[in-house]
Structure to design on (375 residues):
């Protein structure tokens, strides 16, 4: 191998997770801020499935040979972007606002915890790399 | 245990073609490795600096991206330095050898 | 779009809820006000929330919105008529026009506004913790 690249795919994965959870946090904040705005459609940021596909993607899956081809699923972690979906209120009562404050608060806590976990793991990996480099005196 | 031994035997290292001078090959590969390490450290350093200015000027996307860029620059540089130290060590040791 | 967008979103919500709380306290303070400079009894005020766009650089997040109070609406219903001939504002037939404010409803509304306010401060604290954790990556 020509380049000694110490940053393995797990680091790229953790970085991507941080990006996605950061966006998720903004979506949840938007829901909580608009919990009582009439007509507001609750938003959900979905990325878990795309991420799963990217992690477990085998090299044999459809690859794009031309820049204009649209890939059916992201085969690289780098290209996972996630999507914001709107959930409209279908109950027909009240102010058409489908945001449940409690649900959003739970999602907020969970998202925050997973973000901090990813940050902690990333920190650990970097510390380990630095240790390996410096202890090999 | 057996499976590990088998798998090691199953993929023998590709042998270098016999007509290439082995010393020259080793030297060119090694210099390539050093060159690419230097390049990587330099570009990581630049990326880290860019990330810092982006954060301060307000156009940074996320705080963690800046931190990660800077960390990667740090590690790349440290790796380069330790590379150099090791090479220097090896050189000095060779010089010390009594012929 | 950066980590501070969350702060902007939640800050807008805090401001909106505070405005709502102010109108509620104005309503409660004026529950017995029978005459105003504009004439007639005090009219109950309520806030109207609307989504507010947070400026950022990426199109992907154009659906993320803050909230703002765009209008303060005055109650259009008929005022309550209470029979009280001794009241200085009583009409000839002895009836006084009182503001159409139910203290109970205002208290419930106030609790809801407080809960929203607290929820949004929780969001801000959560975002701050996440940012601090990201800073630790290099430590």
């Amino acid at each position: 191998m020509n380049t000694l690249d110490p940053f393995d795919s797990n680091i790229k994965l953790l970085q991507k997770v941080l990006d996605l959870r950061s966006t998720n946090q903004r979506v949840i904040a938007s829901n909580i801020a608009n919990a009582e705005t009439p007509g507001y459609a609750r938003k959900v940021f979905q990325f878990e499935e795309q991420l799963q596909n990217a992690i477990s993607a085998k090299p044999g899956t459809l690859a794009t040979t031309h820049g204009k081809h649209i890939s059916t699923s992201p085969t690289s972690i780098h290209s996972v972007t996630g999507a914001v979906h709107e959930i409209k209120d279908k109950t027909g009562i009240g102010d058409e606002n489908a945001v449940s404050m409690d649900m959003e608060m739970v999602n907020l806590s969970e998202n925050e915890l997973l973000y901090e976990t990813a940050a902690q793991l990333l920190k650990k990996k970097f510390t380990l790399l630095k240790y390996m480099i410096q202890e090999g005196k | 245990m057996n499976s590990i031994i088998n798998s090691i035997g199953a993929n023998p290292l590709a042998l270098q073609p016999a007509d290439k001078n082995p010393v020259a090959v080793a030297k060119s590969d090694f210099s390539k490795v050093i060159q690419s390490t230097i390049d990587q450290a330099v570009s990581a350093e630049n990326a880290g600096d860019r990330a810092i200015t982006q954060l301060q000027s307000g156009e940074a996307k996320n705080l963690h991206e800046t931190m990660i860029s800077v960390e990667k620059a740090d590690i790349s540089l440290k790796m380069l330095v330790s590379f150099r130290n090791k090479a220097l060590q090896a050189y000095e040791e060779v010089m010390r050898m009594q012929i | 779009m950066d980590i501070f967008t969350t702060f902007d979103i939640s800050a807008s919500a805090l401001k909106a809820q505070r405005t709502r709380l102010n109108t509620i306290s104005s309503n409660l303070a004026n529950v017995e006000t029978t005459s105003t400079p504009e004439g007639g009894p005090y009219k109950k005020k309520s806030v109207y929330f609307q989504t507010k766009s947070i400026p950022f650089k990426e199109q992907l997040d154009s659906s993320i919105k803050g909230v703002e109070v765009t209008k303060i609406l005055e109650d259009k219903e008929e005022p309550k008529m209470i029979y009280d001939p001794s009241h200085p504002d009583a009409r000839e037939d002895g009836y006084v026009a009182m503001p159409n404010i139910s203290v109970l409803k205002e208290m419930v509304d106030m609790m809801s506004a407080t809960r929203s306010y607290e929820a949004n401060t929780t969001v801000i604290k959560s975002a701050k913790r996440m940012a601090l954790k990201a800073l630790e990556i290099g430590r």
About this structure: The helical segments of chain B are 2-10, 22-57, 63-96. The mean pLDDT of chain B is 76. Chain B touches chain C through twelve residues (CB under 8 Å). Residues 49 and 82 of chain B are 22 Å apart (CA to CA).
